[in-house]
Specification:
Elements (H helix, E strand, L loop, with lengths): L2 E5 L2 E4 L4 E8 L8 E6 L6 E6 L5 E3 L7 E6 L4 E6 L8 E8 L12 E4 L3 E6 L1
Parallel strand pairs: 2-11
Antiparallel strand pairs: 1-3, 3-8, 4-5, 4-9, 5-6, 7-8, 9-10, 9-11
Length: 124
Amino acid sequence: QVQLVESGGGLVQAGGSLRLSCVATGRTFSSYAMGWFRQAPGKERELVAGISRGGSTNYADSVKGRFTISRDNTKNTVYLQMNRLKTEDTAVYYCATPRSIVANYAAGMSYAYWGQGTQVTVSS
């Protein structure tokens, strides 16, 4: 079965950087889109960034220019580089992937498999 394991969360001051990683196992990694979501307390889970199997990317407006999603198919890993972090970026971040090879990587509803999440806390 598909398994996703995130790492790299932590506590950082506003303006700082973090890089999240997610290793996927259980199927051919390169054939599927990958995404990063986040959920802050009292808020709905939102799609932060998605990357297609071909490397095309999509970002939420709130993170454009600050976050970068990338993938390394040789390592079955997707990354989220987060720069110029703000206190409002504080949330649990989840790695996710769709069930279908042809899923729309830019649509949150496409995603079906989730990691356990990693906490990112940005202090002022």
